[in-house]
Amino acid sequence: MTDGVFGRESGHEQVVFCQDQATGLKAIIAVYSTALGPALGGTRFYPYSRDSDALDDVLALSKGMAYKNALAGLDLGGGKAVIIGDPATTKTEALLRAYGRFVQSLGGRYYTACDVGTYVADMDVIARETRFVTGRSRDDGGAGDSSVLTAFGVFQGMCAAAEFRWGSPDLAGRHVGVSGVGKVGHLLVGHLVEAGARVSVTDVSQAAVERVKAAHPAVEIVEDNATLLRMPLDVFAPCALGGALNDTTVPELGAEIVCGAANNQLAHPGIEKSLEDRGVLYAPDYLVNAGGVIQVSDELHGFDFERAKRKAAGIFETTKAVFELAKAEGVPPATAADRLAERRMSEVGRLRSILTV
């Protein structure tokens, strides 16, 4: 386990490389900031083709978590972890417990939770080796599936975007395209259908598509993401992996609003300006998808779902505040969201330097 120079170059406080040959564990834990408190962020289990891809992902994701937690009003910093491998074939109890030992070795600087490729049951296993884990099952004293409030929060952000763009938060009759109907996307579809929206979906997993169709027969199935993205939608909701908005897809985008659950939707800096130039209202991903981290962070205080849901409902007002700041300062919403998060990390984080007894 070694701290690399990457942490200093990227602005991270710490980057830890973890390997256990006996179990096949290869993981990276990145702590971007502890200015507001211990770093909290999920563990992604994914078959990266190159170790450098895993490193790039964990650095971007952990920074996003710091900003997400700051905007959500949590007294938590930002971190993330990735386990390199195919969870369908390499995930074992021994590997997860080995990973838990590495999390424990950080002494509480980093709290982990679920992400792509990891689930509540995995957090219960990891918790057998470390107390610095959230997103555990209800039976194990945890918050359960964080996808529930993640989807709820994205829906709140979407309603706020609708109000800013069209003068009403009501999504009834609006056409929303959801790309990716996995853990979060299929729950978001449920909120949209209940709100009376017209919903079109796509996913690379046929099983995921069939599950949504079975639950909501009126939902339209679209062949692929490229087709969905070009459709004349009111809202496009990226809910799969990151990088959905790039130099190729933004010029083809047919929606007036982008608001989805996926992390790191902007492929690179400058995409937010391209969206602005096209008149597309972008709800920053780390702002609207904070419901999940709000849910699992509530475990640290003795989990209460209704309390966590009330806090996640605040994403509506925070999203409106970001749009209003962007308008007042003449910047894209992503820039405004960054400024609000950085302001809180600086102003509140400074207080931690004041010694108390």
UniProtKB/TrEMBL annotation:
Pfam families: ELFV_dehydrog, ELFV_dehydrog_N
Keyword list, A-Z: NAD, Nucleotide-binding, Oxidoreductase
SUPFAM superfamilies per the UniProt record, alphabetical: Aminoacid dehydrogenase-like, N-terminal domain (SSF53223), NAD(P)-binding Rossmann-fold domains (SSF51735)
One of the GO BP terms on file: amino acid metabolic process
Molecular functions per Gene Ontology: nucleotide binding; oxidoreductase activity, acting on the CH-NH2 group of donors, NAD or NADP as acceptor
Domain (Glutamate/phenylalanine/leucine/valine/L-tryptophan dehydrogenase C-terminal): residue spans on this chain: 144-353
Stored SMART domains: ELFV_dehydrog
Catalytic residue list: 80
Top-level taxon in the UniProt lineage: Bacteria
PROSITE patterns (UniProt xref): GLFV_DEHYDROGENASE (PS00074)
Binding site for NAD(+): 180-185
Keyword Nucleotide-binding found: yes
Family membership noted in the UniProt record: Belongs to the Glu/Leu/Phe/Val dehydrogenases family.
Protein name: Valine dehydrogenase
Source organism of the structure: Amycolatopsis methanolica 239
